[in-house]
Specification:
With 362 residues, this protein is of the alpha/beta class. Helix content is 37%, strand content 16%. It has two domains: 121 residues, Alpha-Beta Complex (Aspartate Aminotransferase, domain 1); 224 residues, 3-Layer(aba) Sandwich (Aspartate Aminotransferase, domain 2). The strands form three sheets. The protein has a seven-stranded mixed β-sheet with strand order 2-8-7-6-5-3-4, sandwiched between helices. The chain binds pyridoxal-5'-phosphate. Pyridoxal-5'-phosphate binds next to α4.
Length: 362
């Protein structure tokens, strides 16, 4: 049985409906970290136009889709691997690398640990420091690499802290890892929401670092969690082949393969998303910074982590208050290294963000 002390993930709207009696269609989801603009108009058209694609098997090589992704990500076609959401690619990558000992920078997305332990490995953590606003201190971090992991996982920008590792720091980390034979998985699920992200993404580094895989999804930025389209970029052809060998044929369905590429070309949608998120990110940060009951951490992605500083308030209380007004935020108390003092919410339309601010800042 699900109870009110349950932790709800961003996709758990059915559970929230069952526990709180708010119809799932009425829930404003500030927990899912999905682009509020909804799906790209070009994708909508392409999906309708390609519906007959499901009458055939998809191209086993997903050639056309991989070319579209390569153009979008400014990389080579051969370096792109596609999968059934980034979730499938996390799993395939971990199976291919088969780490005995992995190091994960946390608090972060919990799926990495699940996959590592399912695969028989052990997961160690490096804790981001609250005193440093959850920003990675690279020098201090590199000392941890002496402990000899064979895999390092970094989420950049990180979920739930919305903190970011610069290109320069990433190169320092990759160089240190290459010297020690450590593979690095960089999960860039939220990268395209970052200001000037093309100067920060690690995709160009895949040309120089063969110990690197960059993971991207489309669920969040392109608002298509139901399409299950993810991709990875690596310059390591041995690793690519190993992932291909393990992957089920046609694991990405024909409609996603045929229509998915349309969204990567929808420049108007992409720019509108950047504008909206950039404005709302600054506005919401400023708004919550002014209230002494909250400490917001400077957000770099499309969501913000906040510490609750007021006595008598907790993440559970705020979750309950918000859901009673049909808004779902993330109670972060189940994240490793966080507690009931932390909440996270993503940025939606200005009107919805105002509604959330009015609820939390009363
Ligand atoms: C950091 C991170 N990586 C990966 C995923 C999974 O995304 P996908 O829908 O592409 O499998 C999520 C989903 O919440 C996430 O937050």
């Amino acid at each position: 049985m699900i109870g009110k002390n349950e932790h709800f993930h961003g996709s758990d709207v059915e559970k929230v409906e069952a526990v709180y009696g708010v119809k799932k269609e009425d829930i404003i989801n500030f927990s899912g970290n999905v682009n509020p603009l909804g799906i790209s108009p070009m994708l909508r058209e392409a999906l309708a136009a390609h519906v007959d694609a499901i009458a055939s098997y998809p191209d086993r090589e997903y050639g056309s889709l991989r070319k579209a992704i390569a153009a979008y990500g400014k990389t080579e076609y051969e370096n792109v691997i596609v999968g059934n959401g980034s979730t499938e690619l996390i799993s395939l990558f971990i199976r291919a690398v088969n780490p005995g000992k992995a190091l994960v920078v946390a608090p972060t997305y919990s799926e990495y640990e699940r996959e590592i332990t399912l695969n028989g490995g052990v997961c160690h953590y490096y804790a981001l420091q609250e005193a440093q606003e959850f920003e990675l201190d690279v020098e201090r971090f590199l000392k941890q690499l002496q402990a000899g992991p064979d895999l390092l996982i970094l989420c950049n920008p990180n979920n739930p802290t919305s903190s970011l590792i610069s290109r320069q720091d990433m190169e320092t980390i990759l160089t240190a890892c290459r010297q020690r034979d450590i593979f690095v998985l960089v999960d860039e699920t939220y990268m395209e929401f970052v200001e000037n992200y093309e100067d920060i993404t690690a995709i160009p580094l895949t040309a120089y670092y063969k110990n690197l895989v960059v993971l991207r999804g489309t669920s969040k930025f392109f608002a298509v969690p139901g399409l299950r389209l993810g991709y990875a970029v690596t310059g390591n052809q041995t690793l690519s082949k190993s992932i291909h060998r393990q992957q089920n044929p046609w694991s990405l369905h024909a409609l996603a393969a045929a229509a998915g590429e349309a969204m990567f070309q929808d420049q108007e949608y992409i720019h509108a998303t950047h504008r909206l998120i950039s404005e709302e990110r600054q506005r919401m940060y400023r708004l919550f910074s002014k209230d002494s009951r909250f400490h917001p951490y400077l957000p770099k992605a499309n969501f913000m982590l906040l510490r609750i500083c007021a006595d008598g308030l907790s993440s559970e209380k705020l979750f309950t208050r918000a859901i009673q007004q049909k808004m779902m935020i993330r109670d972060c108390s189940d994240f490793l290294f966080l507690s009931k003092e932390y909440i996270r919410f993503c940025f939606l339309s200005p009107e919805k963000n105002d509604r959330l601010a009015n609820c939390l800042l009363v």
